[in-house]
Amino acid sequence: MRSTKVIIHLENLKNNFIAIKKQCNNVAVCAAVKADAYGHGAIEVSKSLEDFGCDFFGVATIYEALELIENGIKRPIILFSLPTPTEIKDIVRLGLEPIISTKEHIVLFEKQCENQKKNLNIHLKVDTGMGRIGCPPEDALDLGKRIFNSKYLKFKGLCTHFSTSELKNQDYTNIQLDRFKGVINQLKGSNISPKYFHAANSGAIINNSESIFNLVRSGINLYGYPPTDRLTLNFEPVLEFKTQIVELKKVKKGTSISYGRTYITEEESIIATLPVGYADGYFRALSNVGTVYINGNLYPIVGNICMDQMMVKVDDKVKLYDEVTLIGKEKDQPNAESLAEEVGTISYEILTNIHRVKRFYNK
């Protein structure tokens, strides 16, 4: 059994889910489990969340949805990405709930539903200012009427996505929210009201209570890394990334470490080698920058991180085969957020980048 491993703490996942439900006054929750549940393992995470009472799951691809269905997930699955024509048949066959934004989507789904003699739940997305996917607000009423009057399509949800909800300044989020409310009012004025209105993402769940309708979409919050500094909730990191020391050696002053000789020892040093590298998803950009946690202390990474190995400068408190925490869940340990800050990215990328490492689930 390889010593490099990822440990998923499902009790922390449960606590985060409960905190989100409480924050949102117990409205329905769609858990974003795309990208292998942000690197946590979509199957086990989704099974656990289903047991906790999660209402929907959100994925980016048909293959992600199929994986959940084949592993027994029963709750509705919303396809966050827009469908292409070649995907329409499988979306209808699997009974997914696609997000759409054009008349063409409606025509394609109606035709396929007729062919398969099935009805399909649809979520209409409105681009209120994200600039990514969604119809213009002025087109939403016409599209809503077409869905509402369709023989085969059921108007399950109306949604939008915020671009800056994680920020303390909510001015732009409120502009988006006002546009979304305008669309809702237009639809209701025509006696059209889908079952769900959903706008709040992880940032808005914390920062903007006005954006919480009867369904929220939570991603990074579930995994313990809220995208905002306004920590009104006690989220707990769910994932740990660990390995062991496989070699310890004393080297002389002036010894070069790893490829490129980017680190030269300035004194006699103890160098530990770890059997993990950038092929496992530990960013090479952390070379000579990052730290790891061993026996209650932080130690610096030295030299360039290799594909399968990396080196750390330690002291005589460290022993061969000691456990090393690369990403931890305690406050004094490196975590996905602190590593992201070191390399100029976000915790999402740190978490979803972990490959080739077996997940173990601590229930």
From TrEMBL:
Claim: Isomerase is one of the keywords in the record: yes
Any one GO molecular function term: pyridoxal phosphate binding
Top-level division of the source organism's lineage: Bacteria
Pfam families membership: Ala_racemase_C (PF00842), Ala_racemase_N (PF01168)
Listed Gene3D superfamilies: Alanine racemase, Lyase, Ornithine Decarboxylase, Chain A, domain 1
HAMAP family named among the record's database cross-references: Ala_racemase
Name of the molecule in the record: Alanine racemase
Natural source organism: Thiospirochaeta perfilievii
